[in-house]
Predict the 3D structure of the following.
Amino acid sequence: MTFFFEVLFSGLMTGIMYSLVGLGFALIFKASDVFNMAQGAMSLFAGLALYGFLEQYMQLPIWLALICTVGVMTIWAYVIVFVVLKPLVNRPPLMLFMATFGVAYLMEGIGQSIYGTQAKGLNLGIPDNTFEVSGMLISFFDLFFAGVAAILVGGLVWFFQKTRNGRALRAVSDDHEAALSVGIPLLKAWTITWIVAGVVATVAGVAWGTRLGVQFSLSLIALKALPVLIIGGIDSITGVIIAGLIVGAGENLGEVFIGPYVGGGIQTFFPYLLALLVLYFKPYGLFGKEIVERV
């Protein structure tokens, strides 16, 4: 049982990392109905920018490098909203969706031009030591980013529930036309949302970049977040968090306890198999809002 709980805990920590990527998708979709395929590229670019500020071009202190990275992602938010999305207002959602593909390739191309194509080690000085609790080996690195994720989620809940801008974003997500009719500027709401998504992408990029290295395959981590969105509900922040934990724990337990009997590879297909099962019974996800259209 000790080994079981150790594997379960490790999976939950990985699930939190998936949830960080999924949060960016959910935030942008809630506010603008845009499915942002550039979220993985945003996480990659944030990791590259932090590496540039820390080691490649500057040797800034870690706190200043993080602030500068958030500043870079804020600039990207303004570029995406006012250069890419503004001309596409009131266009079919498919056009906005395809535009985010273009943003993803643009960010990857600029990243290659500035930082090169080689994998880069990102060292924040966080020890990856393990310690024993009731017979279980627990990674300090995993606990640290679990705490960061908890603070981030708590901050997002406070922002959306207690602040004026957060309430405005919730109004925009419920009904764009109604929000415009009461004087809530749509582009401002979108800009705030993309800035928040950029902050989330920074945390995700730093977490995954520190664990796996900052490399261009990091942008593909968004593909692992897709089952999380399907399971939790693409418009539910709470659902994304819970689904990330389910996926992380499920794939870890499956790989360890079922994988040896089927030749392994459980981690590759388990999230998508689980997403298919959820789609069959709950097409809008476990916590998603069902869309009813009257014609």
About this structure: The chain has twelve helices and two strands. The first strand starts at residue 130 and ends at 133.
